[in-house]
Amino acid sequence: MSEVIVGRKGGGKGGGGGGGSSRSPVEAPDSLRSNQHVRVLHAISEGEISGITGAQQIFFDDVPLQNADGSYNFSGVGVDIRLGTQGQAYMPMTGLEAEQSVGVELKYGVAIERAITDTDVDATRVTISVPQLSEQNTTNGDTTGSTVAFRLEGKIGASAWFQLCDDIWVTGKTMSRTQFSYYVRLPVSGGLPRYIRATRLSSDSISGAIQNRTFFDSYTLLWDEKLRYPNTAMIGISIDAQQFSSIPRMAFQIHGIKVLVPSNYNTGTRAYTGSWDGTFVRAWTDNPAWIWYDMLTNTRYGLGGLLDSTLIDKYSLYSIAQYCDVLVPNGFGGWEPRFTCNIALTTQQDAWKLVNDMVSVFRAICFWAGGSLTAVQDAPHSSRYLFNNSNVVGGDFNYQSVASDQRFNVAAVTWNDPLQQYKQSVEIVERPELIAKWNRIQQSDVVAIGCTSRGQARRLGRWLLYAETEAVSFAVGADGALPLPGDIIDIADANRAGARNGGRLLAGSTASTLLLDAPIGLTGTGTVGVVMPDGSYAVVPATVGVGGTSITVSPPLASDPLATAPWVFSTPELETQKFRVISVSEGDDGTYAISGIAYDPDKFDQVEFGTPDVDNPTSIVNLGKPDAVGQLTFLESLYDTGTGLAAARLTVSWTPPPRAMRYQIEVKKPGGNWEYVTEINTPTIDFDSASSGLWSVRVTPKSVLGLTGPGSIQEYNAQALLAPPSALTGLRLDVISSVATLAWDAAPELDVKLGGSISIRHTRNTSANWDAALPLAEVAGRSTSSVVALLPGKYLARAVDSSGVGGPVTEVWSDAQVPLPTNVVLTITESPAFTGVAVNAAPSGGLLKMSGAGFIDDVTDIDAVLGEIDKFGGSLLSSTYSFTAPADLGYVYDCTLTADVVASLYDDGTYIDTITDFDALLGIDGDPPNGASLSLWVRTSDVVLPEVWSAWKPFVVGDYRARLFDFQLRGSVEQTTHWIDVSKLEVVIDMPDRIESGNDIEVPVGGLTVTYSPPFNASPAVSITAQNLAPGDWPDVSAKTATGFTVFIRNSSGVAQSGRSIDYISKGY
């Protein structure tokens, strides 16, 4: 590599010759400037950090140093990184400087060297100058820029010289003295003195028209400031100031501080292996639970100096961290961890506020309990305790709902977008059903702390919108000390439920039979929850006994419950209310006040997977029946299943009637029976994976207390996935050289994009329809183009959905002339003889004909069938033709294959004996030959004797690599009255141009033999450039073949010489 300094290229346009015209010489503007380098040291983080993954994570004014394709946006940039360890090496930054004058002109082949004897010198800055850099055109007098090159080298003592940097090329124009400085590090060991030298690589100018003298002006001794900055992560940047008008704004995308994580945790795979022994290691992670733990325990930048790590409940945090790492849908077709945190804390903040802000990242709260700091996460949990009217003070529960102006149907979540250099973006999340219900927008604005995922921002917004809006408060006796903030509790409030479904057990209750303190208001089978002697809460299947005074448990409880133990009974028609405890406080009278907020176990799937909102029945109070719903409206659509396929969705909606708060949905799907689906509280329902056919839907409204109104039934005939796609638009043929590309606008249907295809056919007949055309290509439904064989005639294309239903055909005509292949090595022509192996087909009259199923012995009246004897008995529906022999190229080569297949597809209403123009033949008397197919297949092998064949694949015009090629033609029709006749079948194998070369190869006196591997297909053209020749020497090239050549270097007497070398280029195919 070389360092290149390039100015703007100057020049002028010369005048033309002829009768008396004249012009003035033109001088290009100066384009060179003296260069300067800026070195900047950034303290980017507390240490130790994991680091920067590459130059793509370094930005100057928001432009990355390196692009994704590996190219660079800036040159001459130096980067030095320290990760922030205690014993890290210092960052080289210049302190003292001492310039040493040289002032000697650099001449070609004469190196200027200087010795450095000070052992403490760390680097040097070499200054080279050009008094003038220009070149004058001796013909027209124009003055333009020129080029000069030089090299900087160093050595230690008597050791060999080595380059200190890449060769330096200066290109441009200057009419005045211009200096260039180059910073180079000196070796730190190996003895003294240390030397530097400068050597001019360009020949000295011998013409006054070329001004490119160079001078070694000076070298400056540099001593570094050796400051290590322990525990501080740093990045040192050196930039060429010519590229910027001012020092650019620099930014870095880093993997930040290594924090304490469990010793059995793999931060890369997010896997926890085996049991955890409670120990930690340091590693980089974006799991917010372990970032929070490190912030609490770190003694340098966290609270570790004030908070003992033993006071933190690390085992509950372990479970929280595992929940954070679970992969969930990102909302855009992929998966990602449930919670991540990428944050830069750059200012001092209130400690307790920061602790709570950080714990909120993973949807948790923290509090002191039992002498330790505990985090409780809003995540799915089973109930830990129960309360009913019998174990609360006064038997009363107090409910409060969030005021209507504090309930939200839109969330605006601010997060940091990686695609925008982590600038803030706002993600809008809506609950359309609430917008429609309230007929207004009520928006909540929230900042997602440490969020760099759009999917996580959306989940936060959904979590806010699905947040529970009802709270409960009550007082209990000593039992109230059992639940802790974050615990889930069951509440059975007979006053709200409309039936008594909880109380206390009587003495004599056993593990299998529970004796109730009063008759229960429910019957049938459900589940019973009981507080066990150890304080745990057990929920098991149960059945209410006769009279409602006992409950039978099966299977039985683990032990007999205590007398007065609280119990609650739930059925599908009446479930307990669930709340999450948010506070427990002790009163002066020995009671405990408990507050909680409603807990919906279905909320998490609604937030993360978008599942429907299901309302669990917690009351059976009757307040009147609703009216029947209005007219049902049906709407069909498609959706992405996330599995790479589309599915049909049938949406049913209706106008809500008075007093209806919920709707029971029943459905009879095509070919099925009536079945219960669900109960919903919105006047619309989606049936996913809907099939085609007749649907019947029954919607039964229910009141707020569960009273049922009249059901409404309506039928609908759904097309679902059987609806045909629309016609392709924008079909066009683009031809570049011999490559043809058929392009079209993207198909709008989702079932074409997912699992569907674009089918392409071709015919030479302008009046031929789809069924008479030959298949050419089949590409994915998302495609908008396909490389096809360049053929004259008509190209036809249509979209085919994932169910195989094709849309209308779109056509485009081509009159392009097919260019001849450039390096044809083999043409395989099977027609008209067709001497290969035919199955259910036979050659006849220059055609390959599909065979009939009849036998001549079955003919009783030969005169009656004479006109169509070729087709007697009907076609055999499918046939194959294998080429006469595989094509052997002799070696494995890259080659291009094209094929020419001309065939006719027709109905037996036209007799084969009467056909004179096969290109014009279509279905005439009978049905058009729907479903006909004719395709060429290919398989390859790289070896012979024995051959190792690949699987058969549909032939596509394009590039292949193999030695052997075998071809097979396959035809099929769907009716015995349809036929295929092939009139032309040919494959052309063409090889691309190929170049072999070698440089600086010594030629011995016995000659040099160059062997190509693999050989060329034909003897290539060979070009020889000899080096180090004496006067009269000449290269003698002989034995030029496809496999190689031999070369001697001979003198003028024809005697072979040694000590010479050659470069060669062989071009062929």
Largest sheet: number of strands, sense, barrel closure? 10 strands, antiparallel
- Bin the helical content: under 10%
Strand content: 35-45%
Give Rg in angstroms: 43 Å
Mean of pLDDT: 85
Please identify the structural class as seen in this structure.
mainly beta
Number of beta-strand segments: 74
Total of helices = 9
The gross shape turns out to be: flat
**How many structural domains does the protein architecture include?**
9
> Distance between the terminal alpha carbons, to the nearest Å?
32 Å
Low-confidence stretches: 1-20, 855-859, 864-869, 910-928
Structure description:
Residues 1-20, 855-859, 864-869 and 910-928 have low confidence and may be disordered. Helix 1 runs antiparallel to helix 2, helix 1 (288-297) packs antiparallel against helix 3 (351-361) and helix 5 (454-465) packs antiparallel against helix 7 (603-609). The longest helix has 12 residues, at 314-325. The protein has nine domains: 33-83 and 229-256; 94-224, Jelly Rolls, CATH 2.60.120; 258-377, no CATH class; 403-465; 470-607, no CATH class; 622-722, Sandwich (Immunoglobulin-like), CATH 2.60.40; 732-814, Sandwich (Immunoglobulin-like), CATH 2.60.40.10; 824-990; and more. With 1069 residues, the protein is mainly beta. Strands 59, 60, 61, 62, 63, 64, 65, 66, 67 and 68 form a ten-stranded antiparallel beta sheet that branches.
